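for the writeup, i need someone to sanity check this before i put it in the appendix. the sequnce is what the collaborator sent (i think, or maybe the updated version? ugh). structure was predicted straight from it, no edits. if anything looks off just tell me and ill rerun, i have time this weekend
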Amino acid sequence: MKALNSFGFPVLRFNFRGAGLSEGEHSEGEGEVGDVRTALNWLDAEFRLPLILAGFSFGSAVGLRAACPDARVRAVIGVGTPVVPVAEATEEPRVYSYEFLRDCVKPKLFISGARDQFGPRAELEALVASVPEPKRFVIIEGADHFFAGRLHEMREAIEQWVREVIMPEKSAIR
């Protein structure tokens, strides 16, 4: 959020249904894709600008699913993209599938911690290898799934990618 906002992009950060103070109930990713679409619709109506979707963890999984086919979305960022089953204390393991990314020709940035328990390097490398260009995969050494103590490196990776891929004229400035 801070990395994209540093370029002057309007940013919307929200909780999915049933998370935090939001209303509704978790619906195993299906309803949450609708939540992302609703957020994209609101951003488009408010700002009428090309959109960049950035999602973290579960937000990456469902955000990428909603954003890749959406013509208003110019590029996507997946941070801490989970690729192994994730189990919450009260539910069955959540299994992720990314076949839809094989049709996503938008610029894609994937960022993961080298010690991410939900995104092992080998599985993420295989995922990124399976998707079309343009794409970039950044591993933050020493970082876990939540980038504890490494948030500045994650932010720098996003800012560098935005300067090089989204706003190349900004590369000459820094």
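Residues 30-47 form the longest helix (18 residues). The mean pLDDT is 89.
thx in advance!!
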